[in-house]
Amino acid sequence: xxxxxxxxxxxxxxxxxxxxxxxxxxxxxxxxxxxxxxxxxxxxxxxxxxxxxxxxxxxxxxxxxxxxxxxxxxxxxxxxxxxxxxxxxxxxxxxxxxxxxxxxxxxxxxxxxxxxxxxxxxxxxxxxxxxxxxxxxxxxxxxxxxxxxxxxxxxxxxxxxxxxxxxxxxxxxxxxxxxxxxxxxxxxxxxxx
Length: 193
Fold this sequence. Notes:
The protein is an all-alpha fold and 193 residues long. The chain contains six helices and two strands. It has helices at 5-21, 39-57, 75-91, 107-129, 137-156, 172-179; strands at 99-100, 105-106. Strands 1-2 form a two-stranded antiparallel sheet. β1 and β2 (105-106) form a beta hairpin. α5 (137-156) packs parallel to α6 (172-179). The protein starts with a helix and ends in a 14-residue tail after the last helix.
């Protein structure tokens, strides 16, 4: 039986929250595997994704062009609250049915997109800050094929980079990272940058 998006997001959030809560303010300027984002910018992006995908679950319009500053005040607690709302939004009966968003994608596909973002960006933040991160195996099993199917369009939209070459012995999660254009062996530089 395929797990629901709500259950998968709950598992993914459980792995992402310790990473986010463990980020020290002194690490906000560090570079990340996402070349265009430092830690602060990536946190802001991830907040925007989490908030907007709550709305998409409810079939509401979203604006990814407007990027508010989320990393203020008690942002760590707020991230926990927003991910809880995300899980709740995608756990509503019918949330995975029909289509949602301006592109009219199947709702389950949209749910898999936010699941992928939450998981991959938690890895990005962990790598940038030296935190431990092991994704939920059920999440990896679900997002792997979904992200691979979305990859050509995501590359065209400049959301994914070119696939990173990995060997035959790569883990399922390393293959997920590679399909998004990430080097699974990426490490933060020694100068904290």
